[in-house]
Structures are given as structure tokens and as C-alpha cells.
Design brief:
This protein has one domain: HUPs (Rossmann fold), CATH 3.40.50.620. Helices cover 52% and strands 12% of the residues. It is built from six helices and five strands, in the order αβαβαβαβαβα. Helix 2 links the parallel strand 1 and strand 2. Helix 1 crosses helix 6 and helix 2 crosses helix 3. The longest helix has 36 residues. It is elongated and about 80 Å long.
Length: 213
């Protein structure tokens, strides 16, 4: 009886181990796909440049991610890809200031005039970025946007905006601007976020907010 129990346990362990290895291979392939997609700039002239919010420091200043995204958007504006820049991102539980306002600070410091800046200060996640930015675009008659975010975030962001019917031309911040040692962490986070997005789609779950994903 005991021998049979351990035999079943070994078989179960082999099955679990095999499934884990297969998932690990899939996760590595997905990470490569995320990286490769985020390495290509697909920018085209559009009605607006959308900057996806990233975060603020506790003193209200833009963090490194929001700064580099906003600087990239400012460069695109200077190059004439769109007449307006739409900053997205609401308040977090730690900072009583919207990420969109931090984006605006960086844009102003990089030569984008205030009349060219539009704020969307409600969203707390990539999904909400797409919902609220899409609504604002529709209200203004804008039909296309250059979508600015970090390269590791680009695939999921473009997918979500596409699901919401927003026509975007993805333009990533270069991977070289991500602090050394952090790229692996961000890629792993994106793999988990993509799994969650697929899970939500399968079970038709409503829009959710999970740690700003």
C-alpha cells in the first residue's frame, strides 16, 4: 500500500515537474517576444501622443520611469508627430498628486507648451489608461495616437488599447534607459501581467486595478 502511494506520488511529481518546465519555456519565449516587440519603434504621425503614467516619488516629483516616458514624448512632439500630448495617470494611495501632473512638469521642462498638453488624471492601471484616454480622444475627434511607454510594457499596452478600439502607433522608450539590473524584474512583472490579462479575457472579468498593472 505504501509502495503504491509513493509510486503515485512520484508520477504526480513527474507530471508537475514537466508542466513547470513547459511553462518555464513558454515564459522565456514570452519574455523574448515582449523584448523584441518593445525594441521596434512604430511611430507615425497622429492626432495625439499618449504617455502612460508610471509613478511619482513621495515628494510628488516624477519617478525615473515617468520622466523617461515624458521626455520621449516631448522629443516626439518636437519632431512633429502630433500637435498634442495626452498625459495619463491618476493619484496613488501614497501621493496625493496625479501622475499626469508629473508628466506635464517634465513636458514643460522639455519645451512642450501648456496649450499642447492634455491631462487624464483618473486612471490607475493600463486598462484604465486605455478607457479614459480613448474616451477623451473620441470626445475631441482624435482618431489615432502615438503610444509612449517603456519597451517592456509596450506589447501589453498596445494589446489593451487595441482591445478598446484605440488606434495606436507604439513608440517605446529605449531599453538602454532602464536602470541596470531592473530589466529582468520588469520583464518578469510583464509576464505575470500578461497571464492575468489572458485569464481575465477567458473568464470575461471586468476591468480591475491590481497594483497599477
Amino acid at each position: 500500500m505504501k509502495r503504491r502511494f509513493f509510486a503515485v506520488l512520484r508520477r504526480l511529481w513527474r507530471i508537475v515537474s514537466t508542466l513547470f518546465i513547459l511553462w518555464l519555456c513558454f515564459a522565456c519565449l514570452l519574455a523574448c517576444t515582449v523584448y523584441l516587440y518593445g525594441s521596434v519603434d512604430r511611430k507615425q504621425p497622429a492626432n495625439v501622443i499618449i504617455v502612460l503614467g508610471a509613478g511619482l516619488r513621495r515628494d510628488g516629483r516624477p519617478d525615473l520611469a515617468l520622466t523617461r516616458r515624458s521626455q520621449h514624448a516631448a522629443q516626439l512632439w518636437q519632431q512633429g508627430y502630433a500637435p498634442y500630448v495626452l498625459c495619463t495617470g491618476g493619484q496613488s494611495e501614497y501621493v496625493r498628486r496625479a501622475e499626469a501632473a508629473g508628466c506635464r512638469d517634465v513636458l514643460l521642462a522639455n519645451g512642450v507648451p501648456d496649450p499642447a498638453i492634455v491631462l487624464e488624471a483618473q486612471s490607475r492601471s493600463t486598462e484604465e489608461n486605455a478607457i479614459y484616454a480613448g474616451d477623451m480622444m473620441a470626445a475631441r475627434g482624435w482618431q489615432s495616437a502615438v503610444l509612449v511607454t517603456d519597451g517592456f510594457h509596450l506589447l501589453r499596452a498596445a494589446w489593451i488599447f487595441g482591445q478598446r478600439g484605440v488606434n495606436v502607433f507604439p513608440s517605446p522608450v529605449a531599453f538602454s534607459r532602464v536602470p541596470a539590473g531592473w530589466l529582468g524584474v520588469y520583464l518578469a512583472r510583464e509576464i505575470l501581467a500578461l497571464h492575468w490579462q489572458v485569464f481575465k479575457g477567458i473568464f470575461n472579468l471586468p476591468n480591475t486595478y491590481v497594483g497599477g498593472l
